[in-house]
Amino acid sequence: MRIARIAGAPGPAYAVQAGDESWVELASVGIDVATTPDLVNAAEDLAALDAAALGGGVVDPEFLAPIVAPGKLMAIGLNFSDHIRETGSVAPKNPILFMKANTSLTGPFDDIVVDPEMTQMADYETELTVIIGQRTKGISKSDAMGVIFGYTVANDVTARDCMKADGQLVRSKSFDTYCPNGPWITTADSVPNPQALAMKTWVNGEVRQDSSSSEMLFPIDHLIHFLARGMTLEPGDILMTGTPHGVGFVMDPPRALQAGDVVECEVEGLGTLRNRVVAPGN
Asked: Which domains does the chain have, with CATH numbers?
């Protein structure tokens, strides 16, 4: 099942992709939700919905960010073996967790605003992103995949020079518009093997990242198990699982995102983000 958040006359609304590939607002079938946690908490109603039997919805909607007001927006650093190799880093013994500000969230086709007074080294990171579906603490690896509601695509945009200057990750990854996501959420039952998905990034049509989620050092079940040992994961929490090789700052010479660039981020079967880079005020 695919669930998007789309623009409408009354305002944004979650919608399900119907059998005729149109998008039917969930409120029209009695499921009234406004945020990602709301959506996840309606999982039983969604499971009972026969989306294939629906039709007559919006044919060409304006897609908005499907991630809205998550309790936690978590991300993992240095989690792809090919990215570790390209950066000359030492593989971490445990997952490296950081948080992104919720205010960095933006839509799948919205502009990424890069302020040259803030950074000269804005970079892209295509990431397979997990939406937590159940309140969980202390879960085993063998049970961890069962708490996932679904998956989406995100771009963990990063100001590399700010990251280096700060000596930590959060600010450089939390600027406004630095987390495009979408274009929809695909429920977990429609993704039989999330550890074997092709991942690609294009900048102005040039392939930059071309890898697979199989390159994860710590797979998704390990990440959920590891994090839930120390913190409670709640419905609608978001986990970005890391990026593969091909980022701009390790190229020779390094290649930063510039105003006018178009960045496309794709995870196999989950959709493609397409965001234009602009300067402030454009």
From this structure: 2-64 (no CATH), 73-278 (3.90.850.10)
